[in-house]
Amino acid sequence: MPDQNALIRATIARLLSEKTGVAVISMKESIEELPATARKAQTIETLQDLLLEMAEERGMMVELDL
């Protein structure tokens, strides 16, 4: 599973890089933009935690619009 986590982190990183310059991103929209393979590999809660953590590291705010 470590390899899968690395792939999911890379996918989230790519998604966030596409949103560079955006101050606030939507949690719901961002999760929906992830490929289906990433969404199936992890629970939604885990994906939300990773997205929130990685966005905060980049100085982005996440709107919790679940």
- How large, in whole angstroms, is the Cα Rg? 11 Å
Give the total of domains: 1
Number of contiguous helices: 4
The helix content is: 55-70%
Low-confidence regions: none
Q: Kindly state the number of beta strands.
A: 2
Overall pLDDT, averaged? 89
Form type: globular
How far apart lie the N and C ends? 27 Å
Order of strands across the main sheet: 1-2
The biggest sheet, with number of strands, parallel, antiparallel or mixed sense and barrel status, is: 2 strands, parallel
Beta-strand content: 5-15%
Order of helices and strands: HEHHHE
Structural class determined from secondary elements = mainly alpha
Structure, described:
The chain is mainly alpha-helical. It has one domain (about 1-65). The protein contains four helices and two strands; from the N terminus they run αβαααβ. It has helices at about 1-20, 25-35, 35-40, 45-55; strands at about 25, 60-65. It has a two-stranded parallel ribbon with strand order 1-2. α1 (about 1-20) packs across α4 (about 45-55). The longest helix has 17 residues, at about 1-20. The mean pLDDT is about 90.
